[in-house]
Amino acid sequence: MTAQIKPDFDVIAVGAGFAGLYLLHRLRGLGFSAKVLESADDVGGTWYWNRYPGARCDIQSIDYSYSFDPELETEWQWSERYATQPEILRYLEHVAHKHDLRRDIQFSTRVEVAKWDADASLWHIRSEAGEEFSCRFYVMASGCLSQPKAPEIEGTDRFHGEVYYTSSWPHEGVDFSGKRVAVIGTGSSGIQSIPLIAEQAQALTVFQRTANYSIPAHNGPMPTEKLAQLEGDRALYREAARWSRAGVPIEPNEEGAMQVSAEERQRRYEAMWGAGELLGIAGAFSDLLVDPVSNETLCEFVRDKIRATVQDQATAELLCPRGHFIGTKRPCLDSNYYQTYNLPHVRLVDLREHPISSITEQGIDTSDETFEFDAIVYATGFDAMTGAIVAVDIVGRDDLSLADKWANGPQTYLGLMTVGFPNFFTITGPGSPSVLSNMTVSIEQHVEWIGDCLSYLSSNGLDVIEPTETAEAGWLQHVNDCADITLYPRADSWYMGANVPGKPRVFLPYVGGVDTYRGACDEVVSRDYLGFRLQGPGKQQCNDGVVRRIQPDVALVLEFIDSLALPPMESLSVDDARAFSIAMAAERPAGPEIGEIIDKVLPGPVGELCYRLYRPDTPGPHPIVAYFHGGGWVLGGADSDDPFCRDLCAQSDSIVVSINYRHAPEDKFPAAPNDGFAAVQWIADNAGMLGGIPGQLAVAGWSAGANIAAVVCQMARDGGGPGIVGQLLLNPVTDCDLTRQSYIDNADGFVLTTALMQWFWDHYADSADRVDPRASPLRASDLSNLPPALVVTSEFDPLCDEGIAYAEAMSNAGVSVRHISARGQIHTSLTAVGVVLSGAPVRKEMGAALLEFFGTAPPSEL
Ligand SMILES: Cc1cc2nc3c(=O)[nH]c(=O)nc-3n(C[C@H](O)[C@H](O)[C@H](O)COP(=O)(O)OP(=O)(O)OC[C@H]3O[C@@H](n4cnc5c(N)ncnc54)[C@H](O)[C@@H]3O)c2cc1C
After folding, report:
1. Parallel, antiparallel, or unpaired for β 111-117 and 655-659?
2. Best residue among 439, 440, 444, 494 to mutate for probing ligand 1, ranked by most atoms within 8 Å of CB
3. Whose alpha carbon is nearest atom 16 of ligand 1?
4. 337: Cβ below 6 Å to ligand 1?
5. Residues 253-303: pLDDT tens digits?
6. SS (H, E, C) 326-380
7. Å from CA of 145 to ligand 1 middle
């Protein structure tokens, strides 16, 4: 049913902060009637409520401002690099005044209930005072950090002195002169306010549960260089911000922290410390938020700074953050925070050692001490990202409550909408970059997307929009995929909901970057609102689907390759293709350290074959894996698969012998399988000499190498040995038929193309030979009695279907087969050790499968 009844407003939005103000302005400009409901008695949102001493932005003011109004940009001058709360509030008041926004904002109005009326296709909104409104579209512009978290401390109502919350500070300010003050909490608000409270108070005691990483803001006048950059070309600067990773135009650093010397690392960290930029922390190196070893170097740098600043070393150690990686909880920018602890009247109490047992009439009792105070300041943070949204009783289709739907964690499509709640939008909602970005940029992007969406609906005679379950589930998966390759989920942070008892532990924001996110939102629109169901009187449209299916790190690799604008490999000569693949291999991370690597030769059927042996650093003897590299029988060698072989060796605690079989076109089929079989026989015969355990021999291979591994198993079965305990086939070539669906679906754009596969076959085998089971093992008349197998296929690989077909055919023939379908991976990504981190779980499973073949691990549950 679609709308016939006219509601009070086209749009009702909750909240008059940065988001609600711009939304109102934008919607008016597009011709919609809009109303904003706000519980405060004026505009400002965050900057209305958080008036504590020291409150400032921690993204530079130049960046932390609107870009939609060019006139505003030039008429407003920020007085400082990091503006104070009063200045930011004045700015928002100025915007409200300039665009006459207050006339459509109803203040002192807390929204309590919002209910979807499916018959009339509109929302009914009810305020705390019982006032009712109706609207076609309902937007929560209610803020990510606007729902204060109540302190979980016994006896908070008993204290007879003054009580303050940083999140709702008195408008008239507070004078702490001559007072004994307690501050509970050392997050951003605590860290900003403590130095200023200390300046006034007679005595200040800070109660800290978790020490936080903070770097000095070096606040001061507007930096002239940055100002010149902005003023040089404002439009360009703002556009660069929109397409940056975090909403501020900063050149990303491509180098990992461990790729440079210790001296160079120290130099860069000193520069970061001196720059006073929050985003500069993670920007010092490319891998700080993904690699624990790299991250720890920065953690220790900051700890050293704390030790050098705080004179009392016991206090310094308490202030040194431990147990979480820097950046995985929101780090802070401060002005004299650590120095404050050198003041004689400031004391730090570590709540992990001395927990608060109760707030009392006079002060605070910890497990072993009684404190008396005149004032207590709670800087205890927020129920972030979802708190303000679910505080309203939002009821969608079929009486579904949003709080119930999100009980195990929020589910959204693009952080903008959620299934079951038609015409309901969130600005900077969970699943969008929001708190991991410069929020003004993210807010503007959401507002503009919503405005464009409503315009599209209205100009197409549509009036109801809702995401599909497929799209929402796909986005949630993508959000989690992005988070899972970072260190973020390892921290007990408010990003994870971990600061609120009972809140489900899920990573709330989208960590894939503002640029990537904007690209996804734009793509959704350009693909006819992909993943949304749109309805209007007598019409419907839905292009269902998932906008991001490739793993995020694989997508980055593909983007990088695209940026090189290389000629297709199949257009090169064999020599050039080989030279190119060698050059690419030289650029990769080396792979894990292992015990020993030896290059030697073994006797092949027509001459010596090179092999490279990888030995674990654990005491031997070890099982042996005979490994065949990829490269379409034409390219590759020991070097090409070196990082992957190291990884296999480390994961499976086995010797890996990588055999360099003869290549086509110089030596066409059946040279490669003949070499492979001879090498495996030799390895079996010489296991003891190699440091292996006789009889503990598996084969493995990737791509064309997996083709050889599969064929060798058939040859060993038919030739009376040697005994092979298992076969690991990663993205195997199993058949010469290039018409399977995966060749069509993944024909182009995922490194291994259908055309390239054709090129490999053309070099490798004459047409008549290709159907030989030693070239196309899937065509063997008998697939029984083969060693147990693990077949791994990648979702975006032309070879995917033939890998699955081989797994099924072996299984049907009674072979014990396990198949892993690697979601979001391409043909080349699972071997990209140290580059494609999302492949790590699959690589681990491959190692575990080898252990299982050797009987050294418990059987898999899968
Ligand atoms: C101290 C502090 C410093 C920050 N510094 C930065 C920074 O430097 N850079 C940055 O990018 N971000 C910063 N943030 C995040 C900041 O919240 C956003 O940048 C931005 O101000 C959010 O704007 P908003 O309009 O989305 O939400 P808010 O500013 O939070 O506004 C939401 C409004 O909705 C109202 N509201 C909520 N629920 C209801 C309801 N049920 N009924 C009626 N009204 C309701 C609230 O009263 C509030 O006024 C900071 C946050 C805090 C707390």
Report:
1. unpaired
2. 439
3. 46
4. no
5. 888 999 899 999 999 999 999 999 988 887 889 999 999 999 999 999 999
6. CCCCCCEEECCHHHHCCCCCEEEEECCCCCEEEECCCEEEECCEEEECCEEEECC
7. 5
List of residues 6+ apart from 861 with CB closer than 8 A: none
Place of tokens 């200023």: 196
**Closest Cα to atom 33, ligand 1: which residue?**
15
Compute the distance between CA of residue 700 and CA of residue 853 in angstroms, rounded to an integer: 12
Distances (CA, A) of 82 to 62, 194, 218, 232, 575: 9, 17, 9, 21, 57
Q: In angstroms, rounded to a whole number, what is the distance separating the alpha carbons of residues 246 and 670?
A: 53
The per-residue pLDDT for range 158-167, each reduced to its tens digit, is: 999 999 999 9
3-state secondary structure of 651: helix
pLDDT digits (tens, 9 = 90+) for 219-231: 999 889 889 999 9
User: Does the pLDDT at position 856 exceed 90?
Assistant: no
Verify whether ligand 1 is closer than 6 Å to residue 246 (CB atom): no
Instruction: Decide if pLDDT at 858 tops 70.
Output: no
Separation between Cα atoms, residue 17 and residue 92, nearest integer Å:
8
Indicate if the pLDDT at residue 584 is higher than 90: no
Structure tokens given for 611? 């092999």
Measured CA angle at 298 (ends 295, 299), to 5 deg? 85
- The tokens describing 814, both together, are 């009674």
Give the pTM: 0.95
- Of the residues 146, 147, 278, which should be mutated to test ligand 1's pocket, given the most ligand atoms within 8 Å of the CB? 146
- From the list 781, 777, 790, 782, the residue with the least C-alpha distance to 725 is 790
Angstrom distance (rounded) from CA 581 to CA 636: 7
Q: What are phi and psi of 366, to 5 degrees?
A: -100, 180
Q: How many CB atoms lie within 10 A of CB 312?
A: 13
User: For atom 35 of ligand 1, which residue has the closest CA?
Assistant: 15
CB 653 within 8 A of CB 636: no
Q: Whose CA is nearest to atom 26 of ligand 1?
A: 143
pLDDT surpassing 70 at residue 777:
yes
